[in-house]
Amino acid sequence: MRLPVCNFDIESNMLCPNCQERLDNGEITKFDVEFSRWILNKEKEYESLVDLHLLRAIKVTGYLILIVRKRQEPILKTNVDLMEEIRNEFGEVLIFEGPAKLRNVVRALISPSVEIGVNSLYLPNGIKESIVMLRDEDRKRIHFTTDELRKIVSTVMSESVLFEYQGDRKKEDGTAPDEFDVRMKEMEQKSRRMR
After folding, report:
1. What is the CATH code for 103-194?
2. What is the pLDDT of residues 94-114, one digit of tens each?
């Protein structure tokens, strides 16, 4: 099993200089260490975990987010007893294959809906912020609020990601839609024709 921290660090209860530096730089968190310790203790009970490569373990808005290497998701999801133990201990589980890509994470959360588009803005301080536009008619199909989506995706991606439904962009003064609105409508029409 490969974890966000060295297995030896968990067993010795002390981080090596490399893992300590990653913790200090924010590449991993104390929760990564805590969950790594917990899952490593389960390896004897669940033999399939020997092949698991866990990249990150994140706790946000009542969810446990596990990011695993590609094609590793079934190692966890097919083990019903393990998943039940994880839920009981840490809450509802979301699993993503990494390294995480914005569109893949968004689509996993809003499926079967699809986003209309993603725009990235670079703020004056150099920070990137993305806005994911959703269709109004998907409001009832998407199981998360825009605030939950923002918190989950922003945490997974380590950058600010906002979510907005198309109808929420209407101008307050009732004037004509801006260029962004026009482009979003065009993209929506193209995606409908492609279906």
Report:
1. 3.30.300.20
2. 999 988 889 999 999 999 999
